[in-house]
Amino acid sequence: MVLADELAKKQQSISVAEFFEKNKHMLGFDSPTRGIITTIKEAIDNSLDACEEAEILPDILVSVQKLGEGVFRVVVEDNGPGIIPEKIPNVFAKLLYGSRFHQIRQTRGQQGIGISAAVLHAQLTTGTSTLVISRVSVMMKAHKMTLTIKTETNEPEVISHEEIEWMHPHGTHVELVFKSTMQAKKKLLEYLKYTSIVNPHARFRIEIDDEFFTLDRVSNDVPPCPISIKPHPYGIELGVLKRMTAASDLPLKEFLIKNFSKIGEKIALEIGATARLNPIVRVNTIQLEQLNHLLDAMQTVKIPAPPASQCLSPITEKLIVKGMEKEFQLDFIKARTRPSNVFDGNSFIVEAAIGYGGKLPPEGNAMILRFANRVPLLYQQGACAITSTIANINWKNYGVSQQNLPMGPILILVHVAATNVPFTSESKDAIASIPKIEREITLVLQELGRDLKLFLNRRNKNKLLDDRARAICTVLPLIAKKIGEILELPPPNTSLIEGKIMRQVVLKKKSTGGKISIRVDNYTMNDQEVSVYDISSDPARNATISPDFVMEMEGEYTKVWKRTLPAGENFEVSYTGVGGGIVDMQGVAENMRVVVDVDV
Amino acid sequence: MVLADELAKKQQSISVAEFFEKNKHMLGFDSPTRGIITTIKEAIDNSLDACEEAEILPDILVSVQKLGEGVFRVVVEDNGPGIIPEKIPNVFAKLLYGSRFHQIRQTRGQQGIGISAAVLHAQLTTGTSTLVISRVSVMMKAHKMTLTIKTETNEPEVISHEEIEWMHPHGTHVELVFKSTMQAKKKLLEYLKYTSIVNPHARFRIEIDDEFFTLDRVSNDVPPCPISIKPHPYGIELGVLKRMTAASDLPLKEFLIKNFSKIGEKIALEIGATARLNPIVRVNTIQLEQLNHLLDAMQTVKIPAPPASQCLSPITEKLIVKGMEKEFQLDFIKARTRPSNVFDGNSFIVEAAIGYGGKLPPEGNAMILRFANRVPLLYQQGACAITSTIANINWKNYGVSQQNLPMGPILILVHVAATNVPFTSESKDAIASIPKIEREITLVLQELGRDLKLFLNRRNKNKLLDDRARAICTVLPLIAKKIGEILELPPPNTSLIEGKIMRQVVLKKKSTGGKISIRVDNYTMNDQEVSVYDISSDPARNATISPDFVMEMEGEYTKVWKRTLPAGENFEVSYTGVGGGIVDMQGVAENMRVVVDVDV
Predict the structure, then answer these.
(1) Three-state DSSP class for A82?
(2) Helices B317-328 and B185-198 sit at what angle, rounded to 10 degrees?
(3) Does residue B490 form part of some domain?
(4) What is the DSSP letter of A407?
């Protein structure tokens, strides 16, 4: 027997489940720490996609319970349209099965792997099956199944199946038990928070062990479900065209119009003419060489871009700014959504935002937030085209220091929305290096970089003025003191002048022989919404301007005046009384306020 | 009809070929540039693995020919054991099919995807089938087939099949035509060069368009083929154990001994006792809860590490040093092979080397060379655990500057050899972040870092001495000139003193009125092998030491004296003659020599 016979005995098929059981890190199950996050992420992706398709406001329960040492139960339950019982086994317990792989539109799930990978992970680490409950309508009962995947064949195995009563009219509940750790709890909460920010129409109720909280919806509008489009001629490869033509006996013109996006009668005829093919030739009779000409023609004839507005669903500039501002209270934030573009026939849109200051850490690398199809990307930042593109921009041009990544209190958010996001692996952690996408990211960040530079320049100029003012304010009290000595008087109070020089808001309460005056001067460059609190034994009934609010408590009167003070303006009120007590204001930043209380 | 019914219509299976046709970047076909390299790499992986299994010295032909604008034909032909005709279609035209996936040993191919992915890429970009010729023995004819993959089913389609005469007694020839560019030619040559370095027993003949060259073998020893081992109990997961026990009716003790590595009678009984299971219980009767106890016992009982020496094949320190030295002529190079270790039951060994100076670029990031199972990794450096581990080491401890990566004329080579390399994706570009592997890389680089530090310290000390000497030597001639002026004499020649201070080798020829003397002083700290050349019209027949070699040519006599001069020693010879001509020496580095020719 020849050696090749010997070797041949070892050659055999590998089921896709076996493959991923061995290479589970490719699915995002590389460490016990990630198991919980990856599972929840896959389930939530499915819930949000399904709710979007059914135009339902998503209401999602996420529960993580520790069952024993290193063993956790994860439940994700939604109010989506449900899954018909015949399909439940394949949807949950067969890798490479799904509804979104063959559609050309923006979806969170796109591979038909995610949730089944979690089922595989559960049975691999604990030997347990996954529990699914799903109900499609109030008219029908819910179906409850327990499932595993037969690894050798990648086929679902239904362990049990029963019809049950269920409190929800429709929705899906999935429950998995696997080995994991909760070391990544912070990352899980981050994932949920960012998911909630970019899905403002969804409500998440979260139970982690004995903690309960809700991330509420801030919008009641279901975003329109992206509509599936036909493939664009520019993105077709010869092998695919060959397969499509072989399977059709339509005449060329009709074939083109029926199967592709943005081809009408005129363009179809032009393609035919360019390829020197008769528009009535049956496409399954076209030979390989002519197919090559046809493909060339399809890619040279001018055809409008695919209809991105239908099939894509960007987060939008407004929503990005709102979410980031809420989270980080930034000194500067700007977002931009680029026009749609195409790579390999896939429509995509890049959105980005740059934030500065606020609650961002002042030192170290910029904070990078990556999103793909409205899903936050949490792992493999170093492997992602978003990161490498950021590193390849010269941030020094925009007044930002850089060591590979930009540094300082900077936040960079990038969202890539595409009909097919080119992830580097099945775990969907990082976007592959596609030049067209990288170019769009570069362009949008350069645009935003210019805005950031303007802000930083202005801020630096302001800082210079501040420094000068500060120097003057240091000597002012000394001069005042000297003058006081010369004139043998108490030194004059310089706070007001200082406030003016420092461009601050100055609140001054002065009590002189039973006459009380309160004055607020806005020396800043902006409008200020000020609430003045004056707490004393004076009821101030004869105040020149009545307080907006008065409260008495044990003989102490809290009087509140609330005003919007334009830059440079002031507000003054006086009354008679004994003075004393506490005076303060709210609504003005800590470093912009001076409060003076003078009792002469 | 409920909405779920509507949605269900779109749910369907996705064939693995469809999946990778859409996600071809996961296979390393993300850009036309990469197509050629990925294809050649996959074919060579197979050839080298097959030759190793058959204990054949590999002789591999790689040919890349441009057929037309952007269309290339790639041929890889080996002298391996060949593939029997029944298996050819599955091996080349079915994703997830192969002989090495289920084996536990170090192989280049491990996924059963590579070469079929190239076939898929060829048919996708040019619509052409792939040509395979294979012959398993001189006793049989060769089989020639053309193949494609049916994408919808991931099954091979044999377009043609004939038996042919073939000049080679055994081997395999694969020929693919696809769209690509040759922009990455430099990277291709790099890949071939490094592959040849770590496979010194292989010969590569390379034809790229009209260039031909050979990377010859430098060793005639076929490295021993790693032997497949059984899984180690420490790496088993519950799901796998459940499957194994369900499929066996052996008693527990025999089951453990037969199916696992390093379990003998004694350990098998200990595992049984720890799990409170009777060693004669039939394993297919063990329930899930008891299986959990069994697994715990298998992972707590002390069991020797898997037999790494059989199943792994490291490059070895000697070979790494040899290859790197040849390539970069380094000033410093040191390699280390760590003891074998285990992650998730997979044996692995980390080897590394650090080089310094020589032909390495003096500026910028360190050069990082990554290898996995003797295959160079060329892409996605940023996504690789090797890179992140290097970045996480504090190189300043070892006298190396660092900005994320270490910087300067430094080369860092890391080879991970494993029974299952945890690649981040099917393209096998980067190693996933597995803590145990990262720890081994850290340890070996820290060891090497300490050696590098010693070298750099010594070099810096030498440099300090040199700087001082240089300062003295700058003023010496000035002093000499001044003295000459005072004494009204020509300034004394200070070269000799300078040579002494600078620790150099000084050759001095002096002609004084017909008396010629030649003297060599070795002021360096090392032995020097010096050849002195004296070319003049003097035959030097009365030389105090006869030349080792004399040659006359047109009245000019070349006299050569060859000596090994210990540090601090000198050599002197004199003769009578007219002097003049040329004097020089060989064998001394350029920056360590001073030649003085004085004619008084």
Answers:
(1) coil
(2) 140
(3) no
(4) B
Instruction: Tell me which residue range forms the domain holding A265.
Output: 233-300
Distance between CA atoms of residues B523 and B114, nearest Å: 60
Give start and end residues of each alpha helix (H) in B86-181. Answer: 88-93, 114-126
* pLDDT confidence of residue A525: 79
Tell me the pTM: 0.77
Q: What is the pLDDT of residues B176-232, one digit of tens each?
A: 999 988 888 889 999 999 999 899 899 999 999 888 999 998 888 888 889 888 989
Q: Where are the beta strands (DSSP E) in B49-129?
A: 59-68, 71-78, 97-98
Q: Which of B 407-436 lie inside 8 A of A, CB atoms?
A: 420, 422-426, 430, 432-435
Q: Using a CB-CB distance cutoff of 8 angstroms, which residues of chain B are in contact with residue A425? A: 26, 424-426
- Closest Cα of chain B to A370: distance in Å? 16
Residues A155 and A115 in one domain: yes
Per cent of chain B over pLDDT 70 is 93
Question: On the CB side of B254, how many CA atoms lie within 13 Å of its CA?
Answer: 9
| 3-state helix, strand and coil shares in percent for chain A, rounded to the nearest 5 | 35, 30, 35
Instruction: Evaluate whether residue A467 is within a structural domain.
Output: no
Same domain, A440 and A364: yes
**Smallest Cα distance from A382 to chain B, Å:** 6
Contact B5 A136 (CB under 8 A): yes
pLDDT of residue A1 exceeding 60: no
Q: Which of A14, A30, A404 lies nearest to residue B112, judging by beta carbons?
A: A14
CB B10 within 8 A of CB A143: no
Instruction: Please state the domain count of chain B.
Output: 4
Contact B102 A127 (CB under 8 A): no
pLDDT tens-digit series, residues A47-89: 999 999 999 999 999 999 999 888 999 999 999 999 999 999 9
Q: How high is the pLDDT of residue B599?
A: 65
ipTM of the complex: 0.76
pLDDT at B235 exceeding the cut of 90: no
Taking the C-alpha atoms of residue A408 and residue A398, their distance in angstroms, rounded to an integer, is 13
Contact (CB<8Å) A2/B291: no
Q: Which CATH number goes with the domain that contains B570?
A: 2.60.40.2960
User: Please, which residues 145-164 of chain B have a Cβ atom closer than 8 Å to chain A?
Assistant: 151
Q: Are residues A57 and A185 in the same domain?
A: yes
To test the contact with chain A by mutation, choose from B425, B436, B439 the residue with the greatest count of A C-beta atoms within 10 A, namely: B425
Cα–Cα nearest to A291, from B39, B124, B36, B17: B124
- The mean predicted confidence, pLDDT, of chain B is 89
Residues of B in contact with A25 (CB under 8 A): 422, 424, 432, 434
Which CATH number goes with the domain that contains A448? 3.30.230.10
Distance CA B354, CA B451 (A): 9
From the CA of B407, how many Å to the nearest CA of chain A? 13
Identify whether residues B35 and B174 lie together within a single domain.
Answer: yes
The residue from A300, A332, A352 where one domain ends is: A300
Domain of B75, CATH number, reads 3.30.565.10
Q: For residue A404, list chain B residues with Cβ-Cβ distance below 8 A.
A: 403-404
Residues B175 and B52 in one domain: yes
Q: Out of A11, A98, A403, whose CB is closest to B14?
A: A98
* pLDDT tens, residue by residue, B481-492: 766 676 666 766
Q: Is B270 on the interface with A (CB under 8 A)?
A: no
Contact B53 A422 (CB under 8 A): no
Q: Is the pLDDT of residue B110 over 70?
A: yes
Q: Are residues B64 and B204 in the same domain?
A: yes
Residues of B in contact with A128 (CB under 8 A): 288
Q: Find out whether B47 and B80 touch, Cβ atoms under 8 Å.
A: yes
Residue B327 and residue B338: Cα distance in Å, rounded? Answer: 24
Residue with the bigger pLDDT between A4 and B116: it is B116
